[in-house]
Amino acid sequence: MKEQLESLNSVAINFGESGMMIVNIILAFVMFGVALGIKTQTFKDVFTNPRSVVVGLLLQWVALPAVTFAIALALSPVITPMIALGMILVASCPGGNISNFISSLSKGNIELSVSMTAISTAMAPVITPLNFYLWGSLYSSIIAVHSDIPRLVIPFLPMLEQILLLLGVPIVLGLIFARYFPNATKKITKPAQTISILLFLGMVAVSFAQNFQIFLDNIIYVFFIVMLHNAAALCTGYFGGKLAKVAVSDRRSLTIEVGIQNSGLGLILLFNAAIFPPEIWHGHYGGMLFITAWWGIWHIISGLAVAYFFRRTPIE
Questions:
Q1: pTM across the whole model
Q2: Based on the structure, what is the number of domains in the chain?
Q3: What is the DSSP string of 92-156?
């Protein structure tokens, strides 16, 4: 299995200078569109009932990366370091927007779901690179001790600087625009988000078109790795909420929020040579790409399955 997964490392995405400019513009547009949907009132509401939100953010920002790190270490004899780092990258991303919809299907606390998504997205420019650096560096150093694989040094400050620029600025601009131009925001939010999705899907299609056969050759392995990782994420949210003794509806939302990550953001970051420079990553991080891409498909399937179960289970 490990030898088979090594073939994924031969996949390298090279957009060129002009292509990278387009990627950065798409990324900025996507994050601006996301920020338009974030209501400042959401942050105010958190302070009126902060307990479940704090529990949820701790589960998402601390528990999930830690659980992911443990799984990656346990699977290290059969998975490649790039697969493991892909898992850590996904766990470092904020919650996905679709989690709000799935949380409503689950009869969860939709206000809690929206609050967690909004806060984790707003904090992504700092939390995502920080978690990826901490857990990725720790994993790399441990693996290097027990194998002949050289330790990968993750450049935290350059990564933080680039992500703050590429994510932070569009998010802040989106929040400011929504605050001062509410009428215009109502008109453009849905079109902007729709265009963002189409641009993102187009970028992914172009990126993976030349490597589709490699993906098909390894889909069975990628499928089970992502399924295990996602199941662990869902369980982290559910049992973490149960341990914290939050309400059942809150627990359902925590399950969905922790189990559904914005892996699309992870993909866009991987496409950016300024964040993952080829001279450090050697242009071979296909394992990360495929894990992140498949997660984006699988978490919708698993999320809907969990929602179906929750919906048929009465809240006591």
A1: 0.83
A2: 1
A3: HS-B-THHHHHHHHTT--HHHHHHHHHHHHHTHHHHHHHHHHHHHHHHHHHHHHTSSPPPP---H
